[in-house]
Recover the amino acids of this structure.
């Protein structure tokens, strides 16, 4: 597994779902949790959490216990509230991120055909026009990079879709930037599939605390 060092104390990884399940050890607690799930959902659930647990072990915080969720879906680890974690899955890919002392968001996006209306909602008029001029496959790829960054940013704040990711300003091809208190990186040099990671200091998340 190739671990990407995004920034100081921020790491992430993305892999094909089937490769994670073939190459890494799955926690017994995760296997128990997928009882009754459809096979496709069980696979992405197991792969994402297995990738996360591998990153936790690599950063000196092995954890085989439960992963809990706050309001709006942010995952966290009971007993390790100061360790930021994030999970993502998309069409046969999974991603995870870990950051001791920071809130983190990761998002992987397999490119798919996207409508002009969706592009116009997520991009400025000039950027939307530029994307519209690209061949369909290139347009899908470049928009997936934009959307992965927008999703990663609102995951880092703990808001999810409630944070209106389509309003996060990201230009096609932009390698990194900031949004409010969030820093983000599009990991183009490290990933074959659109993969972005965002992070912010704990306490800058919106509407959530880590005192549980």
């Amino acid at each position: 597994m190739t671990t990407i060092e995004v920034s100081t104390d921020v790491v992430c990884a993305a892999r094909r779902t089937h490769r994670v399940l073939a190459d890494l050890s799955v926690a017994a607690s995760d296997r128990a949790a997928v009882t009754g799930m459809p096979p496709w959902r069980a696979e992405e659930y197991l792969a994402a959490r297995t990738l996360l647990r591998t990153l936790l072990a690599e950063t000196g915080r092995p954890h085989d216990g439960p992963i809990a969720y706050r309001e709006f879906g942010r995952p966290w680890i009971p007993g390790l509230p100061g360790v930021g974690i994030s999970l993502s899955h998309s069409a046969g890919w999974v991603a995870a991120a870990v950051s001791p002392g920071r809130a983190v968001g990761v998002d992987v996006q397999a490119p798919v055909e996207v409508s002009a209306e969706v592009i116009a909602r997520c991009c400025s008029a000039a950027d939307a026009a530029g994307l519209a001029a690209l061949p369909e496959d290139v347009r899908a790829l470049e928009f997936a990079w934009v959307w992965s960054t927008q999703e990663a940013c609102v995951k880092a704040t703990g808001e999810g879709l409630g944070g209106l990711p389509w309003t996060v300003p990201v230009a096609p091809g932009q390698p990194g930037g900031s949004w409010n208190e969030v820093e983000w990186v599009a990991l183009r040099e490290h990933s074959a599939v659109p993969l972005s990671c965002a992070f912010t200091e704990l306490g800058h998340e919106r509407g959530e605390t880590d005192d549980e």
The chain is about 35% helix and 25% strand.
